[in-house]
Specification:
This protein has about 80 residues and is an all-alpha fold. The protein is built from 2 helices and no strands. Helix 1 crosses helix 2. The protein is flat and about 60 Å long.
């Protein structure tokens, strides 16, 4: 396999990995939204659901903070 073919194969693998990660993240956001809806309807969550939701919310909050920090840094 020549260098060009290897590069193409590597690019295809990266694209596939990105698609898998994107699909997984979409599923996690869907699950988190569903759990938030259940909380709004005063339904109780299992311990595992509550731990997941807290962790996911922390992840989203930290990403938002990083985005805000990057925007502030770029505007300076």
């Amino acid at each position: 396999m020549n260098k060009e073919q290897e590069d193409l194969l590597m690019k295809e693998q990266e694209d596939y990995n990105y698609q898998c990660f994107d699909s997984m993240m979409n599923s996690l956001f869907d699950l988190a939204n569903e759990l938030h809806d259940r909380l709004e309807e005063d339904e109780e969550l299992t311990d595992a659901e509550a731990v997941f939701l807290r962790s996911f919310d922390l992840y989203v909050d930290s990403c938002c903070e990083l985005d805000d920090l990057e925007e502030t840094t770029e505007n300076v």
